[in-house]
Amino acid sequence: MTRLRSALWLPLFDELADPTAVARLAAEAEEAGWHGVFVWDHLRWRAPVQQVADPWITLAAIATATECLRFGPMVTPLARRRPAKVARETATLDRLGGGRLTLGVGLGSDRFACELSATGEELDDRQRGRLLDESLEILTAAWSGRPVHHHSRHYTVDGISFLPRPVQRPGVPVWVAGLPGNVRPLRRAARHEGFVPVNLEHPDQLTDIVTTVTELRRPDTTPYDIAVPLPPGADPAPYAKAGATWWLAEFAPETVTLDQVRGVLRDGPADIGIDMERTR
Question: What is the per-residue pLDDT across 133-178, written as a single tens digit (0 to 9) for each?
Fold first, then answer.
């Protein structure tokens, strides 16, 4: 038996668009016993949000302001990024934090702020899925430290060794996001280290997800993370019973404030035991 881990999940908007302020929040969260701070990755958001911070610069600030808690983008839409650049960024950030980076990935969406269409990115979900899978292949190869040879219509990496490697071996843990009921993200997630179910409505949905991922991962019995976003005040216990290993305290992006986050972090993390056999 171990404990459910708890993290703040922060949209870097308006009052939280200041990396120095977010780094201070992370330091306070660590002092209060939280296990992680994860940040949204967006270029813009719908009104009334006006200010947006870069997640990677903010994560570097978090890495230097803390010593123990995990951090990372949750989630980054890899299809709009160059995987070779992400390979360098993730290895450097993991070393900066002493091996504490978790990389959350997903398809991204044009739904909330039209940020994909406004910047000329790929809008077709299936095509972004292919780009995501290909990017993950490149990242996995890059983190090995061996020369990467990848040639496709989308990406070319011709014999580059990405050194130094991340602190974590064999590489940075990857958590894949997806909607309940969609099998494709679960298949993708089963090849990596965790899953982030988006828009869960009931713990029973999580039970089905855990069952499917467990079957897809057989015979692998290594620990696996299921990170469930829930608003402060919600009871994470039924989700922990269903198989969650992390609770991500989520905040409304249009109204989040520094004082609101500080109030939640001072309440402290969840104190719930979980059966790790359900996450293997």
Answer: 999 999 999 999 999 999 998 999 999 999 999 999 999 999 999 9
The DSSP bridge partners found for residue 248 are: 7, 229
> Which residues on adjacent β-strands are paired with residue 226?
195
Q: How many CA atoms lie within 13 A of 94 on its CB side?
A: 23
Mean per-residue pLDDT, 64-90: 96
State yes or no: cis peptide before 231, omega within 30 of 0. no
pLDDT, tens digit (0-9, with 9 covering 90-100), for 266-280:
999 988 877 655 545
Residue 98 Cα to chain centre, angstroms:
18
CA–CA dist 91, 89 (Å, integer) = 6
Q: What is the pLDDT of residue 276?
A: 53
* Strands 225-230, 174-178: pairing kind: unpaired
**What span, in angstroms and rounded, lies between the C-alpha atoms of 116 and 247?**
28
Do residues 151 and 145 touch, judged by C-beta distance below 8 A?
A: no
Cα–Cα nearest to 236, from 209, 191, 269: 269
Single pTM value for the model = 0.94
**Spatial contact of 279 and 39, defined as CB atoms under 8 Å apart:** no
Distance from chain centroid for Cα 273 = 23
Q: What was the pLDDT predicted at 190?
A: 93
Pairing of strands 36-39, 70-73: parallel
For 225, the 3-state DSSP assignment is strand
